[in-house]
Amino acid sequence: MSQTVDRALSILPLLAEGPADLGQVADRLGVHKSTALRLLRTLHEHGLVYRQSDQRYRLGARLFALAQEAMENLDVREIAHAHLVRLNEKIGHTVHLAVYEENEVLYIDKVESRYPVRMYSRIGKPVAITVAGVAKLLLADLPEHERRALAEKLDYPMYTARSTPHATAFLQELAKVREQGWATDLGGHEESINCVAAPIRGADGRVVAAMSVSAPNVVVTADELLTLLPLVRRTADAISGEYSGRTPVKDSSV
Predict the structure, then answer these.
(1) How far is CA 127 from CA 121, 241, 244, 254, in A?
(2) What would the mean pLDDT of 52-61 be, rounded to a whole number?
């Protein structure tokens, strides 16, 4: 039975490469055509493959529906939380998780710093979209026309002298973030607060969330915080792997 299941599942990545006929499926599996036909018929009955009019087989609509349903039921916060806690336990600083929804970037999780100085951020609260590291990552992943349209509509409050002053500068920063794959906010929202951020990606490579580590200058300097970037990126990669199902769950705190 396990061999039959294994063979049936092996058909799916083959058809992901494009439609294939019975002979091609049998050759790839290393089985007789009659065996391949039985497997294809079973998959067809469940809507996982579809036989075209030219007698070739392709992936079925049911497979895409199942994938979409699975993605919609994934909770990135639930998956990420344990990783965020382990990172916080290791470095001691505040860790945030954020998503982009309806033209706002919102914090959906936060693990507090162990130090007496705390940040005023709250779960469910929008971030300062033109300066926050997590916002830069989420917006940098948008298609170019969406980035430009959004940038033109935003206000650019000068929270500090380091805040993003206008749309042109913001688009330049997003292009830089998109290329390097990480972001910072070094005193752009509050003079005394710095953060480093990394993206969390889904199975299609798109950014579904972003995480950051933030700390005040009285606890750690900006340069010292930047040395934590590799650890932050490894944590984000571990969350991405678990969220997308690409890799086994690993301890991202090492």
Answers:
(1) 8, 26, 26, 29
(2) 91
